[in-house]
Structures are given as structure tokens and as C-alpha cells.
Design a protein that fits this description.
- This is Phage antirepressor protein KilAC domain-containing protein.
- The protein is an alpha+beta fold.
- It has 2 domains: 1-35; 46-120, no CATH class.
- Helices cover 46% and strands 16% of the residues.
- The protein has 4 helices and 5 strands.
- The chain has helices at 2-35, 52-57, 67-73, 109-120, and strands at residues 50-51, 77-80, 83-86, 94-98, 103-107.
- A 3-stranded antiparallel beta sheet has the order 1-5-4. A two-stranded antiparallel ribbon has the order 2-3.
- A hairpin with a 4-residue loop joins strand 4 and strand 5 (103-107).
- The longest helix is centred in the N-terminal third of the chain and has 34 residues, at 2-35.
Length: 129
């Protein structure tokens, strides 16, 4: 009887350790997701283009007005007659479309990842508090 009771205790202790490990992993995953900028949280499995200015708003403390300038300084955009244009070599990241008067920039999924990466590295201008 004592051996059987000891076996039950050991089994329960092992199950408890397993549950604690699983819960710790879940908590870590939830905390990591919470720390992830909204821009990275997938909303669907569809591939879509996100407008640069709209996407930049989801990056916490990024200065949205300076995004194009930052991308220009980093070599992803160039200036032509005072307007920003996207290099063709970065077409898999940034797509430009004319709206009649100016160019709108859209980010591909890889471009969205790049913008988040640049933000995390501190290469994008931050808002002043």
C-alpha cells in the first residue's frame, strides 16, 4: 500500500511539473504576442498590400511623418523632383502607385516585416514626447 501511494505521488508530481511547464510556455507565448507590434499580428492568411502610412501607425512610438524620409536615408526610396519614389530593386518590399497627383506607397508582407525590423533596431525616427 505504501509503495502504491508513493507511485501515485510521483505520478502526480510528474504531471504537475508537466502542466507547469506547459503553462509557462503558454504565458511566454502570450506575453511575446502582447509585445509584438500590432502590425505583426496576422489577421488572415491572405497576402495583401498595406498602405505605408496606415501600417506605420501600428508601430508604437514611430514618427509617421518621418517614415518616407527614414526609408530614403536607408536607401529604400529616392527623391525625384522633390517627390519620393521607390527603387525597382526593392519591388518585393515596396510598391508605388500613382493616385493622380502623388505616389502612394504600399508594403508587401516582406516590406511589412522589414519596417518592423527597422523599427525594432531603432532605425526609424521616434515620436518626441
Amino acid at each position: 500500500m505504501a509503495a502504491e501511494l508513493q507511485h501515485v505521488k510521483e505520478t502526480m508530481a510528474a504531471e504537475l511539473r508537466s502542466v507547469k511547464g506547459t503553462m509557462a510556455a503558454r504565458i511566454e507565448a502570450l506575453e511575446a504576442r502582447e509585445r509584438t507590434p500590432l502590425a505583426l499580428v496576422p489577421t488572415s492568411h491572405e497576402v495583401h498590400l498595406a498602405k505605408l502610412s496606415t501600417y506605420a501607425h501600428s508601430l508604437q512610438d514611430a514618427n509617421v511623418l518621418m517614415i518616407k524620409s527614414d526609408l530614403w536615408k536607408l536607401g529604400y526610396l529616392y527623391r525625384q523632383s522633390g517627390a519620393y519614389r521607390a527603387y525597382r530593386k526593392h519591388g518585393e518590399l515596396i510598391v508605388e502607385r500613382s493616385n493622380g497627383k502623388t505616389m502612394d506607397f504600399y508594403l508587401t508582407p516582406r516590406g511589412q516585416e522589414l519596417l518592423v525590423h527597422l523599427h525594432n533596431q531603432g532605425k526609424l525616427t521616434k515620436k518626441k514626447s
